[in-house]
Amino acid sequence: MKKLIALYRKPDDVEAFLKHYNEVHLPLVEKVPGLLRTIVNRVTASPMGGEPAFFMIVEMQYADAVSFDAAMKSPENRAAGKDLMGFARDIVTLVVTEAE
């Protein structure tokens, strides 16, 4: 399984961020071909105390490298990426992982 993971730091305006994420961005993400599942994790605490490094961690799961690569090249993914850069460029880090 291949995953695209988005790590979001806390936005200045949490309400506006969540509204855009849930009403605009997530529907765009869910149109990406080959996407098996999206898991949105809201970070609630740090076990070390203090403010957590991240506000939200989102996992987008794909069956394998072939479906992941095709998804990343799709017009639907380009639309989601353009939207992401428009509302979260300064607070998001993207990583690609492979489950073992």
TrEMBL record:
<dbReference type="GO" id="GO:0016491">
    <property type="term" value="F:oxidoreductase activity"/>
</dbReference>
<protein>
    <submittedName>
        <fullName>Ethyl tert-butyl ether degradation protein EthD</fullName>
    </submittedName>
</protein>
<dbReference type="InterPro" id="IPR009799">
    <property type="entry name" value="EthD_dom"/>
</dbReference>
<dbReference type="InterPro" id="IPR011008">
    <property type="entry name" value="Dimeric_a/b-barrel"/>
</dbReference>
<feature type="domain" description="EthD">
    <location>
        <begin position="13"/>
        <end position="88"/>
    </location>
</feature>
<dbReference type="Pfam" id="PF07110">
    <property type="entry name" value="EthD"/>
</dbReference>
